[in-house]
Specification:
heterodimer, A: alpha+beta, Alpha-Beta Plaits, 4 strands, elongated, B: globular
Chain lengths: 308, 226
């Protein structure tokens, strides 16, 4: 009996879906828009947090050694620093390496390269890039370096040219504030859009069921019980969810394709390929949301007409 | 089979729609209830269906007091009664076949029974060749015949027809009455309401109950007196 009813409910759901063509299409369109916003919200918050992580990862302290300092001096300083518990790792860049990095960075800038060539000597000192274990620990390392430069305990004098921690810090703090602000704004906007479209979708489904209210009354008169009447409507709602989830996920491709160039600058990554590689996750989320949403909307809407 | 015992129905504003009606209907009887609009015919049927409760009095269906049937059991009770309305009330998005099949599905009947019974019942109402038509593609008379097929397909004990010919022309009216008579001959109790003299004439010597202002003023076999 139960299986027979399920079979009939599914069959009726399909038939109604097909015969109420326009109503189904408009419900699906509205739900697709809703799911589209939800995917956008999800994608943006993932991207922003990835970008923020990456920017945070860029934080380090660069110690520029004097050109007069010998490699041994600098390596000695590196050793001293490695004793600090806060330090995660230190990258040593020799003077030659620094020069070739510089040339590489300015390979399109003839003037600079010419000017560099005119110098007889390598103008760059070696560099130590220090990474702390946690962001909060940079201040301690910076303080230590400060004491190294200020205290004249002999050997270290004249090794450190400059430490650029404070410069970096301001930039990074600023950047994370901006990212945070954009993120919050985006989330707020997305939530408003989601709420609005949820309401519109709900109304569309309600309207679809309103059209069938006479039908529901007749079904009751003919002796159908409530769950048998409700079944096909709920199944239809779930179908709206499945189809809309599919449409929304696919529709994201052309949109991302169009937006990708400008988004690449913002997020420092290829958003389209990120989306492609995580498409199953996005589909699964919108499928789940779509089905739950469709089922709940239909159940709420049909309930009204079953109370006779 | 059906017994109304001194049934009175008053609405909240104190107007009596039915007053002190007593009435017995035997199994396999064909009973017509006639009267002007507002005479209380439809209210009487609604009380019989359990859609309304009498203010006073009781109604028995095979010795069961229908006012004491619990809501959860009401479905079962209603499955024993088939109903036909003046405005047909078919499911617009379903074919004639599906409309009739729906009543069987709702009653939890097996697919095998449905595929064998539905065409049979549609043949009985002369619609064997229009099984795949939607209500909008059928004439009023044809729609009413689908409604009758739907009402009898679960083999109810009683068929209630509330002004079944109210929206039909004389030819279709005659067809419908013929079908109802046929159903009655096959053993189903039929209760018909109408205010159409022709319908009573078509029924010949059947029992006619005349109602006026909520009271039964006449109850005899044959003839139409208003």
């Amino acid at each position: 009996m139960f299986i027979l009813n399920i079979k009939r409910i599914i069959k009726t759901g399909f038939t109604n879906f097909w015969r109420n063509g326009m109503v189904s299409v408009s419900s699906i369109m509205m739900m697709t828009v809703t799911l589209f916003f939800i995917i956008s919200l999800l994608l943006c918050s993932v991207l922003f947090s990835l970008t923020l992580d990456r920017v945070k990862d860029e934080i380090d302290i660069n110690v520029y050694a004097m050109t007069t300092a010998t490699p041994e001096d600098v390596l000695k300083l590196k050793q001293d620093l490695e004793f600090l518990p806060e330090v995660d790792n230190i990258e040593y860049i020799s003077r030659e390496q620094a020069l070739s990095n510089f040339r590489d960075r300015h390979r399109n800038d003839e003037q600079t390269l010419q000017a560099l060539d005119e110098l007889e000597e390598n103008p760059l000192g070696s560099v130590l890039n220090i990474k702390a274990k946690e962001i909060g620990q940079y201040a301690g390392i910076a303080k230590f370096l400060e004491s190294k430069t200020v205290l004249t305990d002999g050997e270290d004098i004249g090794v450190i040219d400059k430490v650029n921690y404070s410069q970096n810090k301001a930039t990074i703090d600023g950047l994370s504030r901006i990212i945070d602000a954009i993120n919050k704004f985006g989330v707020a906007l997305a939530i408003i859009l989601i709420v609005v479209s949820v309401f519109i979708t709900f109304s569309t489904i309600r309207l679809a069921i309103f059209i069938s209210r006479e039908e529901i009354k007749v079904m009751r008169l003919v002796g159908a019980n409530n769950s048998y009447i409700r079944g096909p409507f709920i199944f239809e709602g779930a179908m709206y969810g499945v189809i809309s989830a599919f449409l929304a996920t696919v529709l994201f491709y052309p949109v991302l394709f169009w937006l990708n160039p400008s988004m690449e600058n913002l997020f420092l990554m290829d958003v389209l390929s990120y989306y492609s590689s995580h498409i199953l996750m996005f589909f699964a989320v919108s499928l789940l949301v779509g089905i739950i949403f469709g089922v709940i909307s239909s159940a709420l809407a049909v309930r009204k007409y079953l109370k006779i | 089979m059906i017994y109304f015992d001194k049934v009175t129905k008053k609405y909240q504003d104190g107007i009596k729609v039915i007053s002190d009606v007593s009435l017995t209907i035997e199994p396999e009887e064909f009973v017509s209830i006639v009267g002007h609009s507002g005479a209380g015919k439809t209210t009487l049927l609604r009380i019989l269906l359990g859609e309304e409760k009498p203010t006073k009095g009781v109604v028995f269906f095979e010795s069961v007091n229908i006012n004491k049937i619990r809501k959860s059991q009401m479905n079962k009770y209603r499955k024993r009664i088939g109903i036909v309305f003046q405005d047909f009330r078919l499911l617009p998005n379903r074919t004639a076949y599906e409309n009739v099949a729906f009543a069987m599905e709702a009653a939890g009947r097996k697919d095998r029974e449905i595929t064998s019974d539905v065409p049979h019942v549609l043949n009985l109402v002369d619609l064997g060749n229009k099984q795949g038509s939607f209500p909008r593609e059928l004439s009023g008379g044809e729609q009413q015949r689908v409604a009758i097929a739907r009402a009898i397909v679960n083999q109810p004990d009683v068929l209630i027809a509330d002004e079944p010919t109210g929206n039909l022309d004389p030819d279709n009216t005659e067809d419908i009455i013929k079908i109802l008579k046929k159903i009655n001959e096959l053993g189903t109790t039929v209760i018909l309401t109408t205010h159409n003299k022709n319908v009573i004439d078509l029924l010949g010597r059947k029992r006619v109950i005349t109602m006026e202002d909520g009271e039964i003023v006449r109850d005899k076999n044959g003839g139409y007196i208003l």
